Amino acid sequence: MYRAKDFIVTEEGLAFAVVDNRVEEDKVLCFLRYVLENGSWRKLSTETANARLQAHSPEYLHYSQVLDAQLHAVPQTDVVQHFKPERRLQALLKQADADEVIKDLQVFCRLLQDEGVQLENIGVTGSLIIGAQHADSDLDLVFYDRKVFQQTRSVLADLIKQNKCQGLREQDWEQSWQRRDCELSLEEYIWHEQRKFNKVMINGRKVDLSLLIEEAPETEIYSKRGPVAIRVQVTDDSQGFDYPARFNIQHPEMTEIVCFSATYTGQAKAGEWVDVSGLLEASTDGRQRIIVGSTREARGEFIRVVAKA
Q1: How large is the C-alpha radius of gyration of the chain?
Q2: C-alpha distances out from residue 47 to 43, 237, 244, 258, 259, Å
Q3: Contact predicate 247/256, CB 8 Å
Q4: pLDDT by residue (tens digit) across 170-192?
Q5: CA–CA separation, 238 and 230 (whole Å)
Q6: Domain range 222-307, CATH architecture
Q7: What does the alpha-carbon distance between residue 3 and residue 16 come to, in Å, rounded to a whole number?
Q8: Residue 216 confidence (pLDDT)
Q9: pTM of the model
Q10: Which bin fits 115, alpha (ψ -120 to 50), beta or left (φ > 0)?
Q11: Helices 186-194, 170-180: crossing angle, 10 deg rounding
Q12: Structural domain boundaries in the chain
């Protein structure tokens, strides 16, 4: 079984991040993130990843009928390694000959345990999952239990108060904002991020928390209808940190905002008004929703709080 945030590797030395729990046409829906060169993993930008596949492995380029999106897909028969975040985390926590990145991961996880957080439903993804980390790598943790995720967000606030962890400094936020290359100003980005408590610093290293809840795959087929930009009130944010994040909205025609971009995960709270820009999707039964993060770059797409509850 494949889940979003798993990683898979092919015989050619291509490492893909899984982006959806579904297998489509016996292919794993994913996106190329790393290539093995001279025994080391090299991270690829979106443009470079697409160009490499077009030039050398066009069979991995895929148009998903279910998602109505261009992405990458690898036949299950081409997968030679399958990395699962929760298994990788447990292995790294036991690793004795650890580098500084893994040591910081071990220290951070011990802090969570000391505060009563159970690690069984937590995994590590990103560079650490395939051993591609370098001295400046972040720690990317994925949670598979909503209660544990929310508990950890509260724990982070307490750890910062105790100075066992640190909040991000202004330069840390600016670096994060620059990497995101999003549609928000720096001030807007920081304001939204500081109230989420899903990022923290440990020994000068950034830790990112994300949530992935296993649910039955969506069976409804949606098709894109074009760009849309509206101001709307959020009525339910209980799935606001999920992947994808979902925000129910009060609108006569649209039911929800579905966000695939980590930039806007947890972006709004129930009762708040937001400006949202994305792609309108309609299902076969007439339901409409707004997609934010229809591409990795999410150019022109955003969720911005304009009035608090």
Answers
A1: 19
A2: 12, 33, 23, 24, 21
A3: yes
A4: 999 999 999 888 999 999 999 99
A5: 21
A6: Beta Barrel (2.40)
A7: 12
A8: 64
A9: 0.92
A10: alpha
A11: 110
A12: 7-83, 85-211, 222-307
CA distance 244 to 125: 16
User: Measured between alpha carbons, how far is 40 from 132 in angstroms, rounded to an integer?
Assistant: 7
In this predicted model, what pLDDT tens digit does every residue of 1-17 receive, in sequence order? 999 999 999 999 999 99
- What the block records as the tokens of 258 is 């579905």
- What gap in Å lies between CA 277 and CA 291, rounded to an integer? 8
Per residue, the 3-state secondary structure of the chain, as one string, reads: CCCCCCEEEECCCEEEEEEEEEEECCEEEEEEEEEEECCEEEECCHHHHHHHHHHHCHHHEEEECCCCEEEEEEEHHHEEEEECHHHHHHHHHCCCCCCHHHHHHHHHHHHHHHCCCCCCCEEEECHHHHCCCCCCCCEEEEECCHHHHHHHHHHHHHHHHCCCCECCCHHHHHHHHHHHCCCCCHHHHHHHHHCCCCEEEECCEEEEEEECCCCCCCCCCEEEEEEEEEEEEEEEEEECCCCCEEEEEECCCEEEEEECCHHHCCCCCCCCEEEEEEEEEEECCCCEEEEECCCCCCCCCEEEEEECC
Q: Evaluate whether 260 touches 17 at the Cβ level (below 8 Å).
A: no
| Number of other CB atoms surrounding residue 263 within 10 Å | 23
